[in-house]
Structures are given as C-alpha cells and as structure tokens.
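Protocol step 4 of 6: structure prediction from sequence.
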Amino acid sequence: MAEMAKTPLLLIGGGGHCRACIDVVESTGLYDIVGIVEAKGAVPDAKMPYPIIGDDADLPDLIQHTPHCLITVGQLKNASVRSRLFQELKHLGAVLPTIISPLAYVSATARLGEGTIVMHQALVNAYAQIGENGIVNSQTLVEHDAVVGAHTHLSTGCKINGGVTLGHACFVGSGAVIKQGVTIADKVVIGANSTVLSDITEAGVFSGVVK
C-alpha cells in the first residue's frame, strides 16, 4: 500500500517555541515542513532544523504555493503578534490546521479552533472548547466544559479546571491553577505557579493567590 502523501506546511516565526512546534508537527506524521517564514531582519536560529525561506513580505507568494500554515511565534505577555499574523494569514487565504500531538489526549466532544496546537502530554477533556490560534502547551490540563478564548497561550503544566471561562488573548503561566467555575476577562496574564480562586474582571497581570 502506498504511503499517504504529507501536506506541505509553512511555519510562521522562528525561535524556541518554533522548535517545540516542529517536534509536535513531525510526531504527527501528517505534514512536510517546507520552511520557516521569519520577521524581516531577525537573526537566524542556529538550532533550527529547517531553512528560513522568506519574511513577512513574502507571505502572499509563499501561500500561493503552500497554503497550509502554522503560527510558531511564541506568546508570553502579549498576544498582539500572533493575533496580527493570524488575521493576515486569513486575509491571504491561508489554511490554518489544528495540530494535535499523538502524545496528547483530546476528548471526542472537545472543540479546537483553527490554528491551535495541542502539545505533548496535554489533556483536553470532555466538552472543553479552545479558541482559534491557541497554544495548549506540554502537560497542560483543560478540564470538562472549560471555554478558552482565541489567541490564548496555556503554558506548560497549567490546570484549567472544569467550567472555567478564560478570555481572548490571555496567558496562563507554567504550573498555574484556575479554580473550577472561575471567569477571567480578555488580555489577562497569570503568573507561573499562581492560583486563581475568584473571577478576574479586567485586563492585567496577576500572580500569587488571586482571591
């Protein structure tokens, strides 16, 4: 039986997060990474196993030949770059697949937005919803019925408990825990190892125990 052809894929943005995404993409066996599109003037990453094939100005031509793209720019305190790239790629007619590590578990009843990546050993449980262009990083837990907005990064090992509503363009740091049923506004940054016990109603940076 002939081997199934892999889908050519562009990676948009280099750096450490890109390298982690490459490991996930390769593990799926579904994609053939064509190369990386980097910001103009960016210093090439010596550890990158794939070539830089252009910058943002080249995207219209590159997408004509390789429409499937994954945004591999990291996100810490600000989602603006990832959000801008997502809108630009959509405008150019790019296809943004949802990519799930074979080492992760995503419930059949969960819903993932386009362009979202679920990384190694993450767990997305029953009826959870993850918005478009999200990052569900390694060993993250998203429990039943949680709703996570678009352009949000759930960092390594954080726990989003059942029924949580998390806004758009948020960042949840490594090891943070959000109590069940809590609602969090858009553009909230939650520090590593923090515990959120009550609603957060406005944008900002929060750390420690949020009561």
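Step 5 (inspection) to follow. Residues 7-91 form a domain with the Rossmann fold fold (CATH 3.40.50.20).
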